[in-house]
Amino acid sequence: MDYKKKINILLAVGIFFLSTSGILIKVASAPPLITAFYRMFFTVLILTPYFLIKHRADARYFLDYRPLLVGFLLAVHFILWISSIQYTDISNSVIFVALQPLFTIILEYLFAREDLKEGAVIGIVMAVIGSSIISIGDFYQLGDKLFGNFLALSAALFASSYLFIGRGVRKKLNYFPYLYILYTYAALFLAVGVYIFEIPFIGYGTNNYLIFLALALGPTIVGHSILNLAVRYLPTSIVSLSILGEPILTTFLAWLLLSEEIRMTTMFGGAFILGGIYLASVYNNHQNRKKERLQQSES
C-alpha cells in the first residue's frame, strides 16, 4: 500500500475520532463548563511531558499576549459549542459549528483586506440559505432548539476568530508547541470560569471522567493531530472535503447510538451549508495558491 492510501485511511480515522466529540458531549452529565475544562485539562496533562522534552525552548511564547487572547477565544468556543448540544440536536450543532471556514473568510475580508471573490460569496449565500432552512424547521421550539442553534453559530464565530488571530503566532511556532500553549491558556481560562461560577471541580462520577479523558485523547489529540499530518501530504481541497464528513458522520452516529431524529429540514439545510462551506473553502484555497505562485514568480 503506497503512502497516499495510508494517509487517506489515516485521514478517515481522524475524521471518525473528530465525529465522536458531539456524541461524547451529549452523553456526559456534567455542566458544559466542567466538560470543557476537563477536556482541555486532560489534553494538556497528556501533552506536557512531550512539550518539556522536545519544545521547552518555546515556552517563552507563553509571554506573548496573542496566545493568551487566542486561548481565551478557544475557551469561549468550547463553552458555547458544548452548551449548544444541551439545547439542540447534535446534527444541528455540528452543522452550524462547521460554518467556521466561512466566518474566517469574512474576517479576512473585513480585517486583512482579502478580496471576497465570487466563489466565496456563493458559498456564504448557500450557507445562509441552509441555516435559514434549519432554523425554520426549529421555529416551533423558539426557546429551545433555536437558542442551541444560536450558541453553535456563535461557537463557529469564536473558532474562526481564534484561528484568524493566531495566524501570526503560527508562523513563528511549530504546530505542536503552538497548540500546547493555546490549550494551556484555554484550560486556565476555563478553570477561572469554573471558580467564578462556583461550580465544583470534583464529584462527577467515573463515567464522566472517562468521557472527559476520551474527549482529550480522541477528538482533541488523535483527531486534530491526524488532520495536521494529512495537510502536509494531501491537497487542501481533499482535506477540506474530508472535514465536512465530520458533521455527516456525527449525525449518523447520533441516530445510530442515541436514536436522535433527523428531520428533513436538517438534511436539506445541512446539504446547503456543507456545500457552501466546501465551495468557499476550495475557492479560497485556490486563490491563495494562485497568489503564492504570483509572489514566487515576482521574486
From TrEMBL:
Record field: transmembrane: 7-27, 33-53, 65-87, 93-112, 119-140, 146-165, 177-197, 209-231, 238-258, 264-283
Pfam families: EamA
Amino-acid biosynthesis in keyword set: no
Signal peptide residue numbers: none
UniProt entry keywords in alphabetical sequence: Membrane, Transmembrane, Transmembrane helix
Domain EamA: start-end pairs: 7-135, 147-281
Highest taxon in the source lineage: Bacteria
Assigned GO CC terms: membrane
Family: Belongs to the EamA transporter family.
Protein name: Drug/metabolite transporter (DMT)-like permease
Source organism of the structure: Halanaerobium congolense
